[in-house]
Amino acid sequence: MQKEIQTRLPLTEPMFFVLAALADGDKHGWGILKDVEDLTQGRVSLSPGTLYGIIKRLLEWEWIAESEQRPPQRWDDRRRKYYRLTDQGREAAQAEARRLQGAVDLARGKHLLRAPKGGPA
Amino acid sequence: MRNGLFGWLMKLLPREFREEFGEEMEMVHSQQEKRATNRSWRSLADMLRLALAEHCNGLAMDFKLAARRLASRPFFTLAAVLSLALGTGASIAVFSLLEAAFWRPLPGVQQMNRLVNVKAKSTAKETFELLSYPNFADLRRDSRSLQDLAGFHGLFLSLRLEGEPEIVPAQFVTGNYFSLLGSRPLRGRLIMAQDQEDQTPVAVLSHHLWQTRLGGSQDVLGRRILLNGQPFTVVGIAPPGFRGTFVGFNFDVFLPASHSAIAGLPPLNQRGRGWVETIGRLQDDVSLAQAQQELQSLAEGLSERFPVLNEGLAIELSAVTGHDDDLRGGLALFLSLLLGVGLMVLAVACANLSNVYLARLLQRRPELALRLALGARRTRLLRLQCSEALLLGLSAAGLGALAAQLALAQVPSALSTIDPSLSLDARLGFPTLAFGSGLALLASLALGVLPTLRADRFRLAETLRDADQRSAAGSRLHRLSVGLQVALSLVVLISAGLFFRTLQKASAIDPGFATQGVIEAGLNPALAGLEDDRAVPLLTRIRQEVGRQPGFRSAALTNRVPLGLGARIFANPARIIIEGHPPPAEREDWPIEHSVVSEDYFATLDIPIVQGRAFRESDDLGSQPVAVVSRALSQRFWPQGDALGRSLRLVRGEDSQRLTIIGVAADAKVRSLDAAPAPYLYLPFSQHPRARMTLLAASTSADAGQSLKDIIHSLAPNLPLREVVPLSRQLNRALLPQRIAGSVAGALGLLGLFLVAVGLYGAAAQSVTARRRELAIRASLGARPHDIFALIVRQSLWAVLVGLALGSAAAAALSHTLRGFWTGLSPTDPLTFLTVPILLLAAALASTLLPTLQAVRTSPHPNQA
């Protein structure tokens, strides 16, 4: 499984953000889209085409799954699908985050980036 | 508007995708639209990209799945690819021959469609003749409908670069020849009008000669070469592949027509002897018919001005096609036949594989019906089937193209066995590959779509209910395609059979002369720069010397090698007047085929003299003119057998010469192997000397060819020898088309037969499996094994018989169109038309028998079935 994840790294930025959006709870498509916008302060805005292309791919890879848990009926729209991060998906997101972390560390070592205040050099 | 556009773009997505995510996507989109930003244009572009990516993904998945399915059945896949590859390969190879011979533009020639052949015809002499140079020049000067006329004459010259002289095909051309064709030089310049006026000895070499004999050396321009012993300066290299307006022949050297004397051609001012082959270029606004009319009236004017020399001169214009019209027709027919055979095998292979697929689909019917009921889409099944077929088709086309390339690589050497100056640049270019891909696509479509559509007709949903009724419908379709395959294979096999029978018949035909142990060598002393008065004694000396050598039984000279390429293509009638036998209607004399031969000719070729004597040394210019006639001639005019001592008059221009018949020779075939013996006349070389003869030498020794070369070399060191080959090769050459076609059709026919047998086996096996229950019930009710056997066999037998009948009729029709190929054979040769269908029937029965026997032997209890 680990190996399979490794072959799919690095992830595209939108794909990583979709995984990240689902990391703290199940969401439907519009929820993911808004979350990504919030996470990136509006820098990354997914179109439906991009979003659902990614969702389909992640479903195929079993990194996300359709969630059985739905909100209480009065808030629910039957047309919506909710997605949750699978263990494999979480692992993949973590692996990508580590990869990005490695890149940031390298940039710091070469003084391309300053260390955050209070953090290690 | 953008919402509408978005909805429309949604439709571009694969249906599965739409069903899965469509509703939600629209929701997200409209929510995004509410916050209206110009981002939504990007969102539309994203949709397009997604649609494209999803479709590509789907295709890739389909192909992956198809590849996996094919890999899981390696034997089926191998057989399928091989049978399709043979069909496509054969078709591709023949197609590229056709393309090279007929459709490719002539290299180095501009606007070929405006070029016309200008042929002279004498209405008085009923033969085609070449224009004399003055006639050509007059036409050129006076014609308004043609932009220009150019002349050329192709022949062999002796070329000496360094060391031994060699014989090369060359063309004398008028100064405007290259400019009329619109050719540009590769190096230096081409022949120009000035060259002809100045009489400068310049030569242009072909790209081929420059590359092969001079290694493409850069300092070729200005180099001096010897042609027929005369020095010439190389001034240019013709464009690559340039061979004038001909396909299939190479010319290596081009010279100004003003130097034609070095090859013994008539001088440019002689109106009486024609030697100029003429082409013209039409004016832009003039049609062929208009030009024809104008040139005809010009020709009539020439006839009036020079009534004796130009008696009945007429001009015939025809479009330049790159071919001699007679050869073109024959070659086109021959190649089309081969293409037809290749396509037929491909069709049989497709029909067969399509049957295998159909059988599989029918077997899987319950499963498929279940899948459809569970929501699988029919188009999805179709797509899977199509991608598998496409994979098969493409691999087969690839393999076929490879095989075709290998086969085409043999073409040059095969052609050079016919004649060294023949060449055809057949290769896999764009048109051929397009044709091959087209075939592959068609075959794939047939394999992918047909079985699925046919299976569809069985209304898959009903199949769960009723199992037995459908098998009847299925086998009806099966029978139809079995019948079709049998018919197609029969046509191919019968053609192959006829070719083989032709070869068999031809080799059984006695040509009437010895073909074994005789060697021929073409001798042309003019190529060594010898004039006629020195050439003739040299030829006689060579003949006498060879005849005297140990190891040679005898040697003779002839101007016409029996069944040689020249004799088969060109008629050579002498005009004969025979007292008491008025010539045929509207003629003044009898046209009788003839050869000029030296003494010992009949002995060398083992042609018996049945009456009188052969030519002797004493029959020379000072003695009484004599002739030997063939038995057919003697019987035609003197059936009483009293030809000896009679006389003939040989017409030459305005004069005639009285010849006395001194001998009657047995009939020998000269022009064609299968024609009935025709009247033939032999004239003695000593009384009709000519400078260009072929030496025939009878020998039993194995290295006679080499010793012949040595003897000729010792007597005439400068005489280039073009070919020293066994006479038996003439016979092989004469039958080359039949031999090639026979082998190709035979191989493909056997393949077709095998494919049909496999198909029938499959059909019978499937039918037996489908009817197991019924057969078991019959068996338990007392049906004996042979009843069951008859039941199954009867089912396929009808299809096979109908196929045989249709196939025979089609084969007979085809064979009739091709009757020119069947030497000494009726187009409906009973032996072929009986044995081939019987063989096919036997093969069909055998392949039906096997699975049926198995069924009869195992004959299960109905409850087990």
Brief digest:
The complex is a heterodimer of chains A (121) and B (865). By secondary structure, chain A is mainly alpha-helical. Chain A is 53% helix and 7% strand.
Task: Decide which structural class fits the backbone of chain B.
Answer: alpha+beta
Name the poorly predicted regions of chain A: none
Counting copies of identical and different chains, the oligomeric state is: heterodimer
Number of helices, counting only DSSP H or I runs of 4 residues or more of chain B: 25
Q: Roughly what fraction of the amino acids of chain B lie in strands?
A: 15-25%
Largest sheet of chain A: 3 strands, antiparallel
Number of helices of chain A: 5
- Major sheet of chain B: order of its strands? 3-4-9-6-8-7
The beta-strand count of chain B equals 22
Mean pLDDT of chain A: 87
Mean pLDDT of chain B, to the nearest integer, reads 82
User: End-to-end span of chain B in angstroms?
Assistant: 64 Å
Helix content percent band of chain B: 40-55%
Strand content of chain A: 5-15%
Strand line-up in the sheet with most strands of chain A? 1-3-2
What class, by secondary structure content of chain A? mainly alpha
Biggest interface, residues from each chain: A-B, 18 and 23 residues
